[in-house]
Amino acid sequence: MAKTNRNHPKNARSSDATTTVFDFERRFPDDSACLDALVEMLYPDGIHCPKCDKVTRHHRLKNRPAFACQWCGHLEYPMKGTIFEGSSTSLKLWFYAIFLMASTRCGISAKQLEREVGVSYPTALRMFRQIRSLLGQGDVLLSGTVEADETYVGGKPRASERARVRDAAQPWKAQSEAVRRGLAKKQTVAGVAQRRGKVAAKVVPNSRRETLVPFVTAKVLPASVVYTDELPSYSSLGDEGFAHSRINHTEQVYVSGDVHTNTIEGFWALLKNGLRGVYHSVSDRHLQSYVDEYVFRYNHRDAPGGMFNAMLGRIDKS
Ligand SMILES: [Zn+2]
């Protein structure tokens, strides 16, 4: 069966940017339109019949989301192996959830999805986890001029710690209050950003040299120019074959000629805004998938067909 080429995702026929709810309704009026679009994405060269061992014409069945080979009757289920498999939520609601996620600049919470489309909160949460699972970073390699930096994100406090800060004026402030009181563990996120290019970011156990240097060497091509701040962990990057320059933040120097880390810091601002404004508190276990979502947003900010088509293009059979 033909696999989707992730580097050159083929958009559905109406590949113009779908930006408004009106665009969405016109393109995906019902489940059937969504299934047709899914077939076009997953089988760009037509459905390959394993029994006939070639691409054959398949007819859409009336009573279930399947297609039958016109020669041998073999049934192909387009949703099988995708995030939609086995879901009782309609395909249109799935597509709409992806549309909502793609069309908000900072992302959307499961609470908002619950309100918008009328699914239960656990269902909304599960749908977003599945959609986010499509947005993995893969093996992106950066080169040229690259900035490396790390940031710290407040982890969700444990139940016992939440109880200790329950007297906070508003419950949703419990998280920041817990962090302020040093109760919530901060998570470290390491990141690299190519100037006018892509970013890569990963939740890491700490900001020690043996953690950060391997991350940079895995994500950045040798002989690239790497800019960091004065954190001692980065001091051996020169030994790794990079042209390494540092900016001295402790002396309030933020830009020295071309040497700065403003690009990656801009990405950290987007990530933290999103985490703070939309998700309130993200448990440690799920932080990487949120980081992946924001990396995807950043790396596809200029996608020709828009963010929605870029996210749709990630749908694949696993
Ligand atoms: Zn066949």
Give a nutshell description of this structure.
By secondary structure, the protein is of the alpha+beta class. The chain has eleven helices and twelve strands.
Compute the number of strand runs.
Answer: 12
Mean pLDDT: 86
Rg (C-alpha, Å): 23 Å
Task: Report the total helices.
Answer: 11
Instruction: Please give the order of strands in the largest beta sheet.
Output: 8-7-6-9-10
Helix content: 25-40%
Give the overall form: elongated
Explained architecture:
This protein is α+β, with helices and mostly antiparallel strands. The protein contains eleven helices and twelve strands. The protein has helices spanning 21-27, 31-42, 91-103, 110-117, 121-132, 159-164, 174-180, 209-219, 262-279, 284-299, 306-312; strands spanning 48-49, 54-55, 58-60, 67-69, 75-76, 145-154, 186-194, 199-204, 225-228, 243-246, 255-256, 259-260. The strands form four sheets. A five-stranded mixed beta sheet has the order 8-7-6-9-10, with helices on both faces. A hairpin with a 4-residue loop joins strand 1 and strand 2. The longest helix is centred in the C-terminal third of the chain and has 18 residues, at 262-279. The two termini are 12 Å apart. It binds zinc ion. The site of zinc ion has 8 residues, from loops.
